[in-house]
Amino acid sequence: MKPEAHDFEIANRADAAEARRAGRELASRIGFDEPEAEEIAIVISELASNIVKHARRGALALRPVERDGNPGVEIEATDEGPGLADPEAAIGDGFTTTGSLGCGLGAVNRLLDELEVGLREGAEAGLRLRGRRWIHDRRSGAPAAIPLHFGVATRPHAGMTINGDSFVACRWKGGALAGVVDGLGHGAFAHRAAETARHYLEMHREEPVEALFRGTARACRPTRGVVMAVARFEVAEPTALPVGGVRLSVAALGNVEVRFARAEETSHLSFPRGIVGFSSTLPRPLDSLWVPGDMLILASDGLDPRWKWTDFPGLRDAPAARIAETLLKRLGRDDDDATVLVVKSAA
To answer: Which domains does the chain have, with CATH numbers?
Structure first.
């Protein structure tokens, strides 16, 4: 039986409990497994509780949706409260107007793949949030993993025991994600910011690069912020690229280095300065076709960027792990955390 949509008026805790129960059941019927259905129920509970606490009255709508053959659920929450001067600020963990812990909407951002935030129009304008969560990797005939080799080397500031840098290197059917994250400064607070970003990226690794930056910025708002570079690889549809073609989408914000090497050429990709979590603008990804022999290097600013391949004879043809280890050993600065991530096509 096809999953049905649900609409709820939310005015008290009983309404919130009913919406949570219905949301869990809808998620299960759509095809989410038990832990995923429970996470969706948590989102509904947080949104409904937010309505009861802050606005007294509002509405929740639950809808089955589909994207590129993958099913998902859409959750929309609207309230009749006074609204907020900056709705985006309410998404970060730690925001509160009632003296509570203020972590509910931060959890909503982490558990949903997409989230739009704004204010309702009209005399009784309130907050409006609409988000979606998708099922991934369950279509029959999904493409195999992209043949890539990752190499990563990282270390903390010479005077620290905890690393303020982090990285992402993961793959799934038909896709892969690589990223370098640098928490501002050093030590425990930089580490917290970097790990917050890493956790969000890994949870939502199959989302487009723009969505990854937007969600990471919301997650990092309560921290001191990060700079980062992210590269997403995806097997393209045959109608868009040759069969088996892989599309690369890469973006960065802040003082992180991105180098793209093809054949004998190496390009330094340029992206805007800023801080993920504080900058009002986010980078626009650069898209290209990834072909066998290509290589991508992402590095935090703890790595001296003034190097060229002729400084390292024969290194370009070495395995990704050895390239990363060599660059870090030779170019890593002692006065900063340092990380380098290398992605190469598998032979």
So the answer is: 6-134 (3.30.565.10), 148-345 (3.60.40.10)
